[in-house]
Specification:
Length: 182
Amino acid sequence: MRLDIYASSEGANARTAALHAVSARPDPTGIDERNAALEERERDLAARELEFDRSEATVAARARALDERERELAHREAELEQMHSGEAQLADIERRRRRLAGQEEALSERTHELQRLEQQLEEHEQTLNEREAHIRTELDLKEDELEGREQALADQEQRIVRKERELTTYVGQLQGRLTVVK
């Protein structure tokens, strides 16, 4: 008789029954003891198989739990990555804000410098306008003075012309008297 140690528990019960049937005969060679030992071993094996099935179920449950944990971990990693991405975006925004603040400050400084230069230009223009007005006033005064001199010169020329005529007339009269007296 052949014993299959990998048989299912049903097969083991069938074998056990067959072994009991065989053991009802008288045993001259110790087969009954060996059969009893084999039955004991089969019961141990069946118990181990049952324990193995239970362990296999436990391992499967643990594998499912591990798979669930892996999914949860992957989900958390994705959330963490999003947080890191968000932090990176915030850092990028902060860098941009600082750069813009620097640019605004530079533009503000340039604006102040342009305002200062415009003010200087206006002051310079005002100075030039005042200078031009002063020069025009001086020119007007000099023109008035020149016009006064021209008028005085014209009046003097008229007096000289009049006096020359008077002198010519007097000289003519004197010559006429001298010729009459001669």
